[in-house]
Amino acid sequence: MNMRIAVVDDEQDIAELAALHLRKENFSVQEYYDAASFMASLRDEMPQAIILDLMLPDADGYEICRALKADGNYAHIPVIMLTAKGEEADKVRGLELGADDYVTKPFSPRELVARVKAVLRRNVAPQETGKIVRLGDAVIVDGNTYHIKNVREKMGNAGELIKNVRGVGYKAEA
Fold first, then answer.
1. Of the four, 5, 77, 106, 173, which is 20 to 30 A from 42 by CA?
2. Which residues contact 61 (CB under 8 A, 6 or more apart)?
3. Mean pLDDT over residues 101-119, rounded?
């Protein structure tokens, strides 16, 4: 399956450079040069990740990110901000608004591709296996698509048994 990446940047050469390198890695890439065309495209086809410039001619990238992350239909899509705004305050604001990563221009296309792959790895749902995992009194059906926060809430006190393993995912630990 080709994963679809949306590149939203009003600088055509930047969008084309990012798209070229993503396509070399077998991603399906759609370029958008303004917010309106990108937002309209979401009705027809949902990307698996979004590379978003902050300074678009018709909208503020921060506001687009905030709107996407506030909408249940799009909140799960990773957003990588790609922008010339490199001050710490800009980066912090973007990440606080829900961006999954932040890359400043000028950028390394290879690094951008690596960051896209990294955010996609973090968002991959487990394969349907149907295995049942028992943790004390808790039972989890392995392979169901779920968010770890919801699982922890449903497990009550037993939710504390699920530990985050940085760079890997989650593990159950008594």
1. 106
2. 8, 35, 52, 53, 54, 55, 81, 83
3. 94
Measured CA to CA, the distance from residue 137 to residue 39 in angstroms comes to 45
Q: Which two tokens stand for residue 149?
A: 């926060």
CATH topology of domain 4-122: Rossmann fold (3.40.50)
Minimal CA–CA distance to 83: which of 110, 39, 115, 51? 51
Return the structure tokens found at 169: 């995912």
Neighbour-count burial for 69-94, b at 16+ CB within 10 Å, e otherwise? beeeebeebbbbbbbebeeeebbebb
Residues 53, 91, 84, 25, CA torsion sign:
negative
* Predicted local confidence at residue 110, as pLDDT: 95
The domain limits of the chain are 4-122, 132-172
In the prediction, which pLDDT does 165 show?
74
Alpha carbons 164 and 173: distance in angstroms, whole number: 10
